[in-house]
Design a protein that fits this description.
With 368 residues, the protein is α/β, with parallel strands linked by helices. Helix content is 36%, strand content 17%.
């Protein structure tokens, strides 16, 4: 696969100018993920209209992968048409549903949404690095394995991690960096599911923020200096996108409601019906099949998780509830039981609003 080489040396003076000219003016991004567009574009009309409206008030839009459902030609065409209709620039990375076999075709198709603007490109993947007009570095990371089919597991190679380290080391001091890939790379338990995730965490040393999707729900985890925010689907309850504001020294993140109350009520009812079916399906054939207490226990947690309303007290209370004991007693091959207890035992961070410093602390001559 023939690629253009890195342009880091060519643009180094430009980057210095950007660093010197960077003002305290804010730069704002709309962030979303996992649209899963199908061939029938009309069924996605409401979410696309909501995102298009929200994009009017930001500087750019970040898409965190799985923009299509099965990487079909018509699905990609629908996504490109939507991107072209946005009032602001968009930066797109692939998810495992977007790219199955033909990497060069994906890059060519989405070249106008990050790749063509890049000052640095990974030679093996769709990863690249872009500077915005205000001097923020967007690190667009392709975290997928090319398998020939829709593979749920991601994968990051050693060479891509080396490219990340080299790109970051080339940046002027005190450059704000927003890294984003489709797959979560934190906590450490993710490293087994996404080969290379641990190496990517190390390569991102000094970066303060990593955005991702894939899990279809909002969540947050922070380990060391790296804050990971997982962005949920905007087309399901609670119907949110994310807003990320970059200022002179800070990142400010908050969720953005996209719909009116009537639409949200409908979305919530659909989501809770899904939770009820999920619980009943998992319990089917066990000693607690159709046990309403066990089903209610699951749906209560599901609803709290979707609305980011889990807290330590709630998690501890639910772990001690009779419903928890019933779920511990069942044997199932699905991941649902492991997932629900994982939520309670590792109570997720509330990321409805997060403030953090992106700038590195000043050090004296002794490195202190």
């Amino acid at each position: 696969m023939k690629r253009k080489g890195n342009h880091i040396k060519t643009v180094f003076l430009i980057l210095l100018v950007i660093g010197l000219c960077r003002s305290c003016s804010a730069e704002t991004f709309l962030v979303t993920s996992d649209l899963h567009l199908t061939k029938d574009i009309e069924k996605h009309g409401a979410v696309l209209a909501a995102l298009r409206h929200a994009a009017e008030d930001v500087d750019a839009v970040l898409f965190l992968g799985d923009s299509t459902n099965n990487a079909h030609e018509e699905e990609h065409a629908n996504m490109i048409d939507f991107l072209d209709s946005l009032p602001k620039p968009a930066y797109v990375i692939p998810g495992n549903h977007d790219i199955t076999l033909n990497l060069p075709e994906f890059i060519d198709r989405y070249a106008d949404y990050g790749w063509n603007e890049a000052f640095s490109r990974d030679e093996e993947t769709a990863s690249c690095a872009v500077f915005t007009k205000e001097g923020t570095c967007l690190l667009l990371l392709d975290t997928n394995q090319i398998t020939g089919y829709v593979a749920a597991l991601g994968g990051i190679s050693d060479s891509t991690c080396a490219w990340v380290s080299k790109t970051l080391s080339s940046l002027p001091k005190d450059t704000p960096v927003i890294a984003y890939g489709h797959h979560p790379i934190l906590p450490q338990s993710r490293w087994e599911r996404t080969p290379g995730a641990g190496q990517l965490v190390k390569a991102l040393q000094g970066v303060k923020l990593y955005l991702c999707g894939h899990d279809h729900g909002f969540a947050g985890v922070k380990i060391g200096e790296l804050q990971q925010i997982t962005v949920g689907q905007p087309q399901v309850f609670p119907g949110w996108a994310g807003i990320l504001k970059v200022t002179g020294e800070d990142f400010h993140w908050e969720v953005l409601p996209l719909y009116d109350d009537s639409t949200l009520q409908t979305m919530e009812a659909e989501e809770m019906a899904l939770a009820d079916n999920m619980a009943r399906g998992t319990l089917r054939g066990t000693v607690h099949e159709d046990d309403e207490e066990a089903i209610q226990w699951f749906t209560d947690i599901f609803e709290a998780a979707m609305g980011l309303e889990l807290n330590e007290a709630f998690c501890q209370e639910m772990l001690k509830a009779p419903g928890a004991q019933k779920w511990r007693e069942i044997e199932t091959r699905t991941v649902v039981k492991k997932w629900i207890f994982g939520l309670l035992e590792n109570c997720p961070q509330d990321i409805r609003q997060v403030d953090m410093k992106w700038s590195q602390p000043q050090r004296n001559a002794r490195g202190e």
